[in-house]
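pasting for the record
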Amino acid sequence: MEQKPLGEGQFDATINGVSIGGLDFTKFALRNLRASTTSRTLRHENHKTDHLFMSMVLAGTVRADQNDRSSTDGTGDFAIRDTNTPWTIEHDGYSEVLAIAIPRERIENVLGPARLFASLTVEGHQPVATLARSFLTSMLGQADRMPPEVAERMVGVGLDLVVASLAERIAREAPRPIHGTVVVQRAKVFVEANLGDQTLDPPQLAAAVGVSLRRLQELFHERGQHISDWIWERRLAEAAKRLGDPGYLHMPLGSLAYSCGFANQSHFSRRFKERYGLSPRDYRHRALSQAVAC
């Protein structure tokens, strides 16, 4: 980035970082700084990153520009910056910021391309945003006390809250042409948060996002998807993730199936083998054996 002192005031900064559950958390305390990435600096670095940059203001205010959007984020607010697109951020006076490097696919797989939400301010007083901030900052205080597998699961919960906050923010001001995309994104966020609910079905999902079942079906079909297929695919993907996680090794297969929304183990085993070509037991054994070998 290009970095310059802002105004006539004295510049100073401190930076502290920690890795939790595979994510890098960095806390900045800054005074009077203007930082920017430009087309030139991005070409010079010659890279496309697979991460997005979450910026949560802990104290003071931060002004930012990206994607023809300008915002001034206050204490408690957060926004996402796309590191592949030029942006500018200004710390006029003193501010503290918590920055988190989030895998791009973790957000874009649910909410769509970053241009839909990059540099949108998620106000800290919104209920889900309040939960996200409280959870992430509290997790920082416990970073050195959590085993790696626990930290990874807790990070997952925090990111789910971030995605839910962004979905709400997009829905408030989405232009009509992309309204259908926003509805589908909100539906996918709801599915991710309720995979363990065995009663989750297309009618319940449509009611949760405030559209008719027919309209939701149309929106999914336009994207080459079926609602039920999406729900089962996400349940199977979550089950596969847990089967390969040593933190879930103590969990019997029946309990794991139930926690991912399957009514019984036989139904789970049949669907899982159809999708992954192995029984859940064999998949777990292979995944954990490969982890040990590495």
